[in-house]
Design brief:
Blueprint (H helix, E strand, L loop, with lengths): L5 E5 L6 E6 L3 H19 L3 H17 L1 H12 L3 H26 L3 E3 L9 E9 L2 E5 L7 H12 L3 E5 L5 H13 L7 E3 L4 H9 L4 E5 L2 H13 L4 E4 L4 E5 L5 H13 L9 E7 L3 H13 L19 H16 L3 E4 L15 E4 L6 H4 L6 E7 L2 H9 L6 E5 L3 H8 L6 E4 L20 E2 L4 H6 L2 E9 L14 H12 L6 H4 L3 H8 L4
Parallel strand pairs: 5-6, 5-8, 6-7, 8-9, 10-11, 10-15, 11-14, 13-14, 15-16
Antiparallel strand pairs: 1-2, 3-4, 4-18, 9-17, 12-13
Protein backbone atom coordinates (compact mmCIF):
# COMPACT_ATOMS: atom_id res chain seq x y z
CA UNK A 1 0.00 0.00 0.00
CA UNK A 2 1.30 3.44 -0.94
CA UNK A 3 1.32 6.15 1.71
CA UNK A 4 -0.63 9.39 1.27
CA UNK A 5 2.55 11.43 0.82
CA UNK A 6 3.18 12.52 -2.77
CA UNK A 7 5.99 13.20 -5.16
CA UNK A 8 5.13 16.08 -7.49
CA UNK A 9 6.72 16.24 -10.94
CA UNK A 10 7.28 19.72 -12.40
CA UNK A 11 8.18 20.89 -15.88
CA UNK A 12 11.53 22.69 -15.36
CA UNK A 13 10.88 24.92 -18.37
CA UNK A 14 7.71 26.39 -16.92
CA UNK A 15 7.29 25.21 -13.35
CA UNK A 16 3.91 23.66 -14.10
CA UNK A 17 2.87 20.48 -12.32
CA UNK A 18 2.75 17.61 -14.81
CA UNK A 19 1.98 14.71 -12.50
CA UNK A 20 1.93 13.22 -9.01
CA UNK A 21 3.06 9.86 -7.71
CA UNK A 22 3.10 8.21 -4.31
CA UNK A 23 6.00 8.40 -1.88
CA UNK A 24 6.57 4.77 -0.96
CA UNK A 25 7.89 3.88 2.47
CA UNK A 26 10.08 1.01 3.70
CA UNK A 27 7.10 -1.31 4.04
CA UNK A 28 6.02 -0.64 0.46
CA UNK A 29 9.54 -1.29 -0.78
CA UNK A 30 9.81 -4.54 1.15
CA UNK A 31 6.59 -5.77 -0.46
CA UNK A 32 7.90 -4.88 -3.92
CA UNK A 33 11.14 -6.78 -3.29
CA UNK A 34 9.20 -9.84 -2.09
CA UNK A 35 7.08 -9.79 -5.25
CA UNK A 36 10.20 -9.55 -7.37
CA UNK A 37 11.88 -12.40 -5.51
CA UNK A 38 8.82 -14.62 -5.91
CA UNK A 39 8.72 -13.97 -9.66
CA UNK A 40 12.43 -14.44 -10.36
CA UNK A 41 12.92 -18.25 -10.24
CA UNK A 42 10.51 -18.96 -13.09
CA UNK A 43 12.07 -16.16 -15.12
CA UNK A 44 15.59 -17.38 -14.41
CA UNK A 45 14.58 -20.84 -15.64
CA UNK A 46 13.69 -19.49 -19.09
CA UNK A 47 16.15 -19.67 -21.96
CA UNK A 48 17.87 -16.52 -23.19
CA UNK A 49 15.74 -16.68 -26.31
CA UNK A 50 12.53 -16.78 -24.30
CA UNK A 51 13.60 -13.75 -22.25
CA UNK A 52 14.68 -11.95 -25.42
CA UNK A 53 11.17 -12.27 -26.85
CA UNK A 54 9.83 -10.00 -24.07
CA UNK A 55 12.61 -7.47 -24.53
CA UNK A 56 12.11 -7.32 -28.29
CA UNK A 57 8.34 -6.87 -27.83
CA UNK A 58 9.09 -3.99 -25.46
CA UNK A 59 11.46 -2.57 -28.05
CA UNK A 60 8.73 -2.53 -30.68
CA UNK A 61 6.49 -0.59 -28.30
CA UNK A 62 9.27 1.92 -27.61
CA UNK A 63 9.81 2.36 -31.34
CA UNK A 64 6.10 2.96 -31.92
CA UNK A 65 5.89 5.44 -29.03
CA UNK A 66 9.14 7.32 -29.64
CA UNK A 67 7.56 10.76 -29.96
CA UNK A 68 5.37 10.28 -26.88
CA UNK A 69 8.36 9.10 -24.83
CA UNK A 70 10.55 11.98 -26.00
CA UNK A 71 7.84 14.49 -25.13
CA UNK A 72 7.49 13.06 -21.62
CA UNK A 73 11.25 13.06 -21.03
CA UNK A 74 11.41 16.64 -22.29
CA UNK A 75 8.64 17.78 -19.96
CA UNK A 76 10.28 16.17 -16.93
CA UNK A 77 13.89 17.17 -17.65
CA UNK A 78 13.78 20.34 -19.74
CA UNK A 79 15.83 18.90 -22.61
CA UNK A 80 14.61 19.32 -26.22
CA UNK A 81 12.54 16.35 -27.47
CA UNK A 82 14.95 15.82 -30.36
CA UNK A 83 17.77 15.46 -27.83
CA UNK A 84 15.68 13.02 -25.82
CA UNK A 85 15.38 10.93 -28.98
CA UNK A 86 19.06 11.11 -29.93
CA UNK A 87 20.57 10.69 -26.45
CA UNK A 88 18.00 8.47 -24.74
CA UNK A 89 15.57 6.65 -27.02
CA UNK A 90 17.91 5.72 -29.88
CA UNK A 91 20.63 4.27 -27.59
CA UNK A 92 18.10 2.18 -25.68
CA UNK A 93 16.60 0.79 -28.87
CA UNK A 94 20.08 -0.26 -29.93
CA UNK A 95 20.92 -1.73 -26.53
CA UNK A 96 17.66 -3.69 -26.33
CA UNK A 97 18.39 -5.26 -29.69
CA UNK A 98 22.02 -6.00 -28.83
CA UNK A 99 21.44 -7.74 -25.51
CA UNK A 100 18.33 -9.56 -26.68
CA UNK A 101 20.33 -11.10 -29.50
CA UNK A 102 23.73 -11.51 -27.87
CA UNK A 103 23.33 -12.31 -24.17
CA UNK A 104 23.39 -16.05 -24.80
CA UNK A 105 26.79 -15.75 -26.47
CA UNK A 106 28.12 -13.23 -23.95
CA UNK A 107 27.19 -15.47 -21.01
CA UNK A 108 27.88 -18.86 -22.55
CA UNK A 109 29.61 -21.51 -20.49
CA UNK A 110 33.33 -20.68 -20.48
CA UNK A 111 35.93 -23.45 -20.44
CA UNK A 112 39.05 -22.78 -18.38
CA UNK A 113 42.45 -23.93 -19.54
CA UNK A 114 43.89 -25.56 -16.40
CA UNK A 115 47.17 -26.59 -17.98
CA UNK A 116 48.71 -29.91 -16.94
CA UNK A 117 45.78 -30.69 -14.64
CA UNK A 118 43.83 -31.32 -17.85
CA UNK A 119 46.20 -34.22 -18.62
CA UNK A 120 45.16 -35.74 -15.30
CA UNK A 121 41.49 -36.01 -16.34
CA UNK A 122 40.44 -32.71 -14.79
CA UNK A 123 38.35 -29.99 -16.41
CA UNK A 124 36.88 -26.66 -15.28
CA UNK A 125 34.38 -24.17 -16.60
CA UNK A 126 32.52 -21.05 -15.52
CA UNK A 127 28.73 -21.07 -15.46
CA UNK A 128 26.90 -17.74 -15.08
CA UNK A 129 23.84 -17.66 -12.81
CA UNK A 130 21.35 -14.83 -12.18
CA UNK A 131 21.89 -12.83 -9.01
CA UNK A 132 18.20 -12.85 -8.06
CA UNK A 133 16.78 -9.36 -7.48
CA UNK A 134 18.69 -6.32 -8.74
CA UNK A 135 17.90 -2.93 -7.23
CA UNK A 136 18.41 0.06 -9.53
CA UNK A 137 18.58 3.61 -8.18
CA UNK A 138 18.58 5.88 -11.22
CA UNK A 139 19.23 9.62 -11.77
CA UNK A 140 17.19 12.47 -13.18
CA UNK A 141 19.52 13.60 -15.98
CA UNK A 142 18.90 10.56 -18.22
CA UNK A 143 15.70 9.16 -16.71
CA UNK A 144 14.89 6.92 -19.66
CA UNK A 145 18.23 5.58 -20.89
CA UNK A 146 20.03 4.93 -17.60
CA UNK A 147 17.41 2.76 -15.90
CA UNK A 148 16.09 1.09 -19.05
CA UNK A 149 19.55 -0.02 -20.12
CA UNK A 150 20.19 -1.62 -16.74
CA UNK A 151 16.72 -3.17 -16.59
CA UNK A 152 17.28 -4.86 -19.95
CA UNK A 153 20.67 -6.24 -18.94
CA UNK A 154 19.33 -7.46 -15.60
CA UNK A 155 16.31 -9.15 -17.17
CA UNK A 156 18.30 -10.80 -19.93
CA UNK A 157 20.67 -12.18 -17.29
CA UNK A 158 17.67 -13.80 -15.57
CA UNK A 159 17.06 -11.37 -12.71
CA UNK A 160 14.03 -9.55 -11.41
CA UNK A 161 14.36 -5.77 -10.96
CA UNK A 162 13.19 -3.19 -8.45
CA UNK A 163 13.67 0.33 -9.81
CA UNK A 164 13.76 3.46 -7.66
CA UNK A 165 13.85 6.51 -9.99
CA UNK A 166 14.75 10.07 -9.06
CA UNK A 167 11.87 11.94 -7.46
CA UNK A 168 12.29 14.54 -10.22
CA UNK A 169 11.51 12.12 -13.05
CA UNK A 170 9.10 9.50 -11.71
CA UNK A 171 6.70 9.75 -14.66
CA UNK A 172 9.37 8.63 -17.10
CA UNK A 173 10.14 5.62 -14.91
CA UNK A 174 6.47 4.68 -14.73
CA UNK A 175 6.36 4.88 -18.52
CA UNK A 176 9.12 2.27 -18.63
CA UNK A 177 6.91 0.08 -16.45
CA UNK A 178 4.00 0.58 -18.84
CA UNK A 179 6.18 -0.44 -21.79
CA UNK A 180 7.11 -3.77 -20.21
CA UNK A 181 3.54 -4.33 -19.08
CA UNK A 182 2.52 -3.87 -22.70
CA UNK A 183 5.16 -6.44 -23.66
CA UNK A 184 3.44 -8.88 -21.24
CA UNK A 185 6.43 -9.20 -18.92
CA UNK A 186 5.32 -11.48 -16.07
CA UNK A 187 4.06 -9.72 -12.95
CA UNK A 188 6.64 -8.94 -10.31
CA UNK A 189 9.70 -9.01 -12.56
CA UNK A 190 9.85 -5.22 -12.81
CA UNK A 191 8.73 -3.35 -9.71
CA UNK A 192 8.93 0.46 -9.59
CA UNK A 193 9.08 2.15 -6.21
CA UNK A 194 8.60 5.92 -6.32
CA UNK A 195 9.77 8.29 -3.65
CA UNK A 196 12.67 10.34 -2.36
CA UNK A 197 15.97 9.48 -0.72
CA UNK A 198 14.25 7.57 2.05
CA UNK A 199 12.74 5.22 -0.53
CA UNK A 200 16.15 4.62 -2.07
CA UNK A 201 17.62 3.89 1.36
CA UNK A 202 14.80 1.43 2.01
CA UNK A 203 15.62 -0.38 -1.23
CA UNK A 204 19.24 -0.87 -0.17
CA UNK A 205 18.04 -2.21 3.18
CA UNK A 206 15.34 -4.47 1.70
CA UNK A 207 17.56 -7.43 0.93
CA UNK A 208 18.13 -7.15 -2.82
CA UNK A 209 21.07 -9.05 -4.27
CA UNK A 210 22.83 -6.11 -5.90
CA UNK A 211 22.46 -2.35 -6.18
CA UNK A 212 23.13 -0.37 -9.36
CA UNK A 213 23.42 3.28 -8.32
CA UNK A 214 23.92 6.36 -10.49
CA UNK A 215 24.15 9.72 -8.77
CA UNK A 216 26.29 11.98 -6.62
CA UNK A 217 29.45 11.01 -4.78
CA UNK A 218 27.92 11.88 -1.41
CA UNK A 219 24.85 9.70 -1.93
CA UNK A 220 26.93 6.94 -3.51
CA UNK A 221 29.09 6.74 -0.40
CA UNK A 222 25.98 6.36 1.77
CA UNK A 223 24.65 3.64 -0.52
CA UNK A 224 27.97 1.79 -0.40
CA UNK A 225 28.16 2.08 3.39
CA UNK A 226 24.65 0.74 3.92
CA UNK A 227 25.17 -2.05 1.38
CA UNK A 228 28.50 -3.03 2.96
CA UNK A 229 26.79 -3.68 6.29
CA UNK A 230 24.69 -6.31 4.50
CA UNK A 231 27.45 -7.54 2.16
CA UNK A 232 25.37 -6.42 -0.83
CA UNK A 233 27.56 -5.74 -3.90
CA UNK A 234 27.11 -2.38 -5.60
CA UNK A 235 27.99 -0.70 -8.88
CA UNK A 236 28.50 3.04 -8.43
CA UNK A 237 28.51 5.59 -11.26
CA UNK A 238 29.08 8.87 -9.47
CA UNK A 239 29.80 11.57 -11.99
CA UNK A 240 32.88 13.29 -13.26
CA UNK A 241 34.88 16.35 -14.10
CA UNK A 242 35.75 15.17 -17.55
CA UNK A 243 38.68 16.73 -19.41
CA UNK A 244 39.15 17.34 -23.12
CA UNK A 245 42.68 17.81 -24.46
CA UNK A 246 43.09 19.61 -27.81
CA UNK A 247 46.54 19.09 -29.29
CA UNK A 248 48.14 21.54 -31.71
CA UNK A 249 47.49 19.23 -34.70
CA UNK A 250 43.75 18.82 -34.02
CA UNK A 251 41.19 19.72 -36.65
CA UNK A 252 40.07 22.90 -34.95
CA UNK A 253 36.57 23.31 -36.34
CA UNK A 254 35.60 19.77 -35.41
CA UNK A 255 37.28 20.03 -32.02
CA UNK A 256 35.42 23.28 -31.29
CA UNK A 257 32.06 21.80 -32.27
CA UNK A 258 32.80 18.72 -30.18
CA UNK A 259 33.67 20.87 -27.18
CA UNK A 260 30.44 22.82 -27.21
CA UNK A 261 28.29 19.74 -27.75
CA UNK A 262 30.21 17.90 -25.04
CA UNK A 263 29.76 20.82 -22.66
CA UNK A 264 26.21 21.93 -23.47
CA UNK A 265 24.22 18.87 -24.57
CA UNK A 266 21.57 18.10 -21.95
CA UNK A 267 22.38 21.58 -20.60
CA UNK A 268 25.69 20.19 -19.40
CA UNK A 269 23.93 17.78 -17.07
CA UNK A 270 25.78 14.61 -18.01
CA UNK A 271 28.35 12.84 -15.89
CA UNK A 272 30.47 12.69 -19.05
CA UNK A 273 30.05 16.37 -19.95
CA UNK A 274 33.22 18.19 -20.95
CA UNK A 275 33.83 20.26 -17.83
CA UNK A 276 37.51 21.08 -18.41
CA UNK A 277 39.02 21.90 -21.81
CA UNK A 278 42.81 22.04 -22.14
CA UNK A 279 44.06 23.55 -25.41
CA UNK A 280 47.64 23.80 -26.66
CA UNK A 281 48.75 27.41 -26.30
CA UNK A 282 49.72 27.69 -29.98
CA UNK A 283 46.14 27.20 -31.18
CA UNK A 284 44.21 28.55 -28.20
CA UNK A 285 43.22 31.93 -29.72
CA UNK A 286 41.76 30.36 -32.87
CA UNK A 287 40.08 27.58 -30.89
CA UNK A 288 38.48 29.98 -28.41
CA UNK A 289 37.24 32.20 -31.24
CA UNK A 290 35.56 29.21 -32.90
CA UNK A 291 34.03 27.98 -29.64
CA UNK A 292 32.61 31.39 -28.78
CA UNK A 293 31.18 31.82 -32.29
CA UNK A 294 29.52 28.39 -32.22
CA UNK A 295 28.21 28.89 -28.69
CA UNK A 296 26.59 32.22 -29.53
CA UNK A 297 24.82 30.52 -32.46
CA UNK A 298 23.08 28.01 -30.19
CA UNK A 299 19.33 28.46 -29.80
CA UNK A 300 18.10 28.23 -26.23
CA UNK A 301 14.49 28.20 -25.16
CA UNK A 302 11.45 26.21 -24.14
CA UNK A 303 12.20 22.75 -25.50
CA UNK A 304 8.71 22.18 -26.86
CA UNK A 305 9.58 24.56 -29.68
CA UNK A 306 11.22 23.42 -32.90
CA UNK A 307 14.88 24.10 -33.53
CA UNK A 308 15.92 24.47 -29.89
CA UNK A 309 19.48 23.33 -29.12
CA UNK A 310 19.67 23.95 -25.38
CA UNK A 311 16.70 23.71 -23.05
CA UNK A 312 16.25 24.28 -19.34
CA UNK A 313 18.17 22.76 -16.49
CA UNK A 314 16.25 20.10 -14.60
CA UNK A 315 16.31 21.66 -11.14
CA UNK A 316 17.08 25.01 -9.55
CA UNK A 317 19.62 23.64 -7.10
CA UNK A 318 21.86 22.59 -9.99
CA UNK A 319 21.43 25.97 -11.64
CA UNK A 320 22.58 27.64 -8.43
CA UNK A 321 25.76 25.53 -8.47
CA UNK A 322 26.52 26.81 -11.99
CA UNK A 323 26.01 30.39 -10.81
CA UNK A 324 28.29 29.78 -7.83
CA UNK A 325 31.07 28.34 -10.01
CA UNK A 326 30.89 31.27 -12.43
CA UNK A 327 30.94 33.77 -9.58
CA UNK A 328 33.92 32.08 -7.91
CA UNK A 329 35.88 31.99 -11.17
CA UNK A 330 35.27 35.67 -11.98
CA UNK A 331 36.30 36.71 -8.48
CA UNK A 332 39.61 34.86 -9.03
CA UNK A 333 40.33 36.49 -12.39
CA UNK A 334 38.54 34.38 -14.99
CA UNK A 335 37.05 36.00 -18.08
CA UNK A 336 33.54 35.33 -19.41
CA UNK A 337 33.78 35.04 -23.19
CA UNK A 338 30.05 34.50 -23.74
CA UNK A 339 27.03 33.74 -21.58
CA UNK A 340 27.57 33.79 -17.84
CA UNK A 341 24.09 34.38 -16.49
CA UNK A 342 20.84 32.81 -15.49
CA UNK A 343 17.97 33.85 -17.75
CA UNK A 344 15.47 35.87 -15.74
CA UNK A 345 13.23 36.85 -18.65
CA UNK A 346 11.24 33.60 -18.65
CA UNK A 347 9.75 30.95 -16.40
CA UNK A 348 11.83 27.93 -15.61
CA UNK A 349 15.47 27.17 -14.84
CA UNK A 350 17.58 28.38 -17.75
CA UNK A 351 21.27 29.24 -17.69
CA UNK A 352 23.09 30.55 -20.73
CA UNK A 353 25.72 28.31 -22.33
CA UNK A 354 28.85 29.89 -20.91
CA UNK A 355 32.48 29.89 -22.07
CA UNK A 356 35.14 30.95 -19.55
CA UNK A 357 38.87 31.54 -20.12
CA UNK A 358 41.85 32.60 -18.00
CA UNK A 359 41.04 29.79 -15.57
CA UNK A 360 43.20 27.62 -13.33
CA UNK A 361 42.87 24.82 -10.79
CA UNK A 362 42.33 27.18 -7.88
CA UNK A 363 38.78 27.72 -9.17
CA UNK A 364 35.75 25.59 -8.33
CA UNK A 365 34.77 25.29 -11.99
CA UNK A 366 38.01 23.35 -12.62
CA UNK A 367 37.88 21.04 -9.61
CA UNK A 368 34.26 20.50 -8.52
CA UNK A 369 31.58 18.90 -10.66
CA UNK A 370 29.47 21.69 -12.19
CA UNK A 371 26.81 19.64 -13.99
CA UNK A 372 25.62 22.57 -16.04
CA UNK A 373 26.24 24.50 -19.30
CA UNK A 374 29.70 25.78 -18.45
CA UNK A 375 32.88 25.34 -20.55
CA UNK A 376 36.17 26.53 -18.98
CA UNK A 377 39.17 26.62 -21.32
CA UNK A 378 42.79 26.50 -20.10
CA UNK A 379 46.04 26.32 -22.09
CA UNK A 380 49.02 23.96 -21.83
CA UNK A 381 52.51 23.80 -23.32
CA UNK A 382 53.46 20.09 -23.49
CA UNK A 383 51.79 16.70 -23.67
CA UNK A 384 53.08 15.89 -20.19
CA UNK A 385 51.48 19.03 -18.80
CA UNK A 386 48.19 18.20 -20.50
CA UNK A 387 48.12 14.72 -18.94
CA UNK A 388 49.08 16.11 -15.53
CA UNK A 389 46.24 18.64 -15.67
CA UNK A 390 43.74 16.04 -16.89
CA UNK A 391 44.68 13.71 -14.02
CA UNK A 392 44.56 16.48 -11.41
CA UNK A 393 41.04 15.56 -10.28
CA UNK A 394 39.28 13.36 -7.77
CA UNK A 395 37.16 12.10 -10.67
CA UNK A 396 37.92 9.72 -13.52
CA UNK A 397 34.89 8.85 -15.63
CA UNK A 398 35.66 9.83 -19.24
CA UNK A 399 38.18 11.99 -21.06
CA UNK A 400 38.82 13.05 -24.65
CA UNK A 401 41.91 13.74 -26.75
CA UNK A 402 41.69 15.58 -30.08
CA UNK A 403 44.53 15.09 -32.52
CA UNK A 404 45.26 14.17 -36.15
CA UNK A 405 47.87 11.69 -34.97
CA UNK A 406 45.87 8.67 -33.72
CA UNK A 407 49.00 6.94 -32.42
CA UNK A 408 49.89 9.96 -30.32
CA UNK A 409 46.27 10.14 -29.16
CA UNK A 410 46.35 6.52 -28.02
CA UNK A 411 49.61 7.07 -26.17
CA UNK A 412 48.13 10.00 -24.26
CA UNK A 413 44.83 8.20 -23.69
CA UNK A 414 46.55 5.33 -21.91
CA UNK A 415 48.17 7.79 -19.49
CA UNK A 416 44.90 9.42 -18.45
CA UNK A 417 43.10 8.21 -15.32
CA UNK A 418 39.60 7.54 -16.63
CA UNK A 419 37.28 4.62 -17.24
CA UNK A 420 36.86 5.65 -20.89
CA UNK A 421 39.09 7.85 -23.03
CA UNK A 422 37.82 8.89 -26.44
CA UNK A 423 40.01 10.07 -29.30
CA UNK A 424 38.33 12.70 -31.49
CA UNK A 425 34.98 11.96 -29.79
CA UNK A 426 33.18 13.20 -26.68
CA UNK A 427 30.50 11.93 -24.29
CA UNK A 428 28.67 9.45 -26.44
CA UNK A 429 30.12 5.99 -25.79
CA UNK A 430 27.43 5.44 -23.16
CA UNK A 431 25.24 4.95 -26.22
CA UNK A 432 27.39 2.12 -27.60
CA UNK A 433 25.88 -1.01 -26.09
CA UNK A 434 28.95 -3.12 -26.72
CA UNK A 435 31.34 -0.90 -24.74
CA UNK A 436 31.71 -0.75 -20.94
CA UNK A 437 30.82 2.36 -18.95
CA UNK A 438 32.20 3.31 -15.56
CA UNK A 439 34.94 5.21 -13.82
CA UNK A 440 37.86 5.24 -11.43
CA UNK A 441 38.67 7.28 -8.34
CA UNK A 442 35.55 9.05 -7.02
CA UNK A 443 33.68 8.47 -10.25
CA UNK A 444 32.84 5.09 -8.73
CA UNK A 445 33.50 1.45 -9.50
CA UNK A 446 31.99 -1.40 -11.43
CA UNK A 447 30.71 -1.20 -14.99
CA UNK A 448 27.49 -1.05 -16.96
CA UNK A 449 27.02 -1.84 -20.66
CA UNK A 450 29.04 -4.24 -22.76
CA UNK A 451 30.04 -7.68 -21.56
CA UNK A 452 31.63 -6.22 -18.44
CA UNK A 453 28.31 -4.61 -17.53
CA UNK A 454 26.42 -7.82 -18.19
CA UNK A 455 28.81 -9.71 -15.91
CA UNK A 456 27.77 -7.34 -13.11
CA UNK A 457 24.29 -8.89 -13.39
CA UNK A 458 25.36 -12.49 -12.76
CA UNK A 459 27.34 -14.54 -10.31
CA UNK A 460 30.04 -16.77 -11.80
CA UNK A 461 30.02 -20.37 -10.63
CA UNK A 462 33.10 -22.50 -11.13
CA UNK A 463 32.44 -26.17 -11.95
CA UNK A 464 35.38 -28.57 -11.67
CA UNK A 465 35.29 -32.26 -12.60
CA UNK A 466 37.55 -35.31 -12.37
CA UNK A 467 36.78 -37.69 -15.20
CA UNK A 468 38.80 -40.47 -13.55
CA UNK A 469 36.69 -41.21 -10.46
CA UNK A 470 38.32 -44.60 -9.84
CA UNK A 471 41.76 -43.09 -9.20
CA UNK A 472 42.69 -41.42 -5.89
CA UNK A 473 44.39 -38.04 -5.95
CA UNK A 474 48.11 -38.27 -5.40
CA UNK A 475 47.99 -35.45 -2.81
CA UNK A 476 45.54 -37.23 -0.51
CA UNK A 477 46.58 -38.96 2.73
CA UNK A 478 48.79 -40.66 3.65
CA UNK A 479 51.95 -38.53 3.63
CA UNK A 480 54.56 -41.20 3.13
CA UNK A 481 58.26 -40.71 2.36
CA UNK A 482 57.51 -41.41 -1.32
CA UNK A 483 54.75 -38.79 -1.21
CA UNK A 484 57.12 -36.17 0.16
CA UNK A 485 59.59 -36.88 -2.62
CA UNK A 486 56.81 -36.50 -5.23
CA UNK A 487 55.54 -33.25 -3.74
CA UNK A 488 59.03 -31.78 -3.81
CA UNK A 489 59.24 -32.82 -7.43
CA UNK A 490 55.97 -31.00 -8.08
CA UNK A 491 57.48 -27.84 -6.59
CA UNK A 492 60.48 -27.94 -8.91
CA UNK A 493 59.02 -29.42 -12.09
CA UNK A 494 55.20 -29.44 -12.24
CA UNK A 495 54.83 -25.76 -11.34
CA UNK A 496 56.92 -24.68 -14.33
CA UNK A 497 53.88 -25.28 -16.52
CA UNK A 498 56.01 -27.33 -18.89
CA UNK A 499 54.91 -30.89 -19.72
CA UNK A 500 58.46 -31.67 -20.74
CA UNK A 501 59.81 -30.47 -17.39
CA UNK A 502 57.15 -32.41 -15.45
CA UNK A 503 57.42 -35.68 -17.43
CA UNK A 504 60.17 -37.22 -15.22
CA UNK A 505 57.61 -37.22 -12.38
CA UNK A 506 55.33 -39.68 -14.19
CA UNK A 507 56.86 -42.88 -12.69
CA UNK A 508 56.59 -41.41 -9.19
CA UNK A 509 52.95 -40.45 -9.85
CA UNK A 510 52.12 -44.00 -10.99
CA UNK A 511 53.79 -45.51 -7.90
CA UNK A 512 51.95 -43.06 -5.69
CA UNK A 513 48.57 -43.95 -7.23
CA UNK A 514 49.04 -47.61 -6.39
CA UNK A 515 50.79 -47.08 -3.08
CA UNK A 516 49.01 -48.69 -0.14
CA UNK A 517 47.38 -45.98 1.95
Amino acid sequence: MITEAEIVSHNPSSGEVIGRTGLMNASDVAVAVRRARAAQPAWGALSYGERAAYVLRAREIVLAQTEEIASLVSRETGKPPVEAISMEVVPTLDLMNYFARNTAALLKRQKIDIGQYGLMGRSSYIFYKPLGVVGIISPWNFPWATPLDEIVMALMAGNAVVLKPSELTTLTALKIGDIFKGARLPEGLLEIVTGDGSTGAALVEAGVDKIMFTGSVATGKRVAETAAKRLIPVVLELGGKDPMIVLEDAKLENAARAAIWGAFCNSGQACASIERCYVHESIAPQFIELVVKETRALRQGTPSGEGIDVGAMTNERQLQIVESHVRDAVEKGARIETGGSRLHDREGWFHEPTVVTNVDHSMDLMTEETFGPLLPIMTFKTDDEAVRLANDSIYGLTAAVFTSDIGRGRELAERIDAGTVMINEVVYTHAVAQTPWGGVKQSGYGRTHGRLGLLEMVTPQHIHANALPWLPDVWWFRYTKEAGKLFRGFAHRFTTGSVLSASPLLPQIVRRLFERR
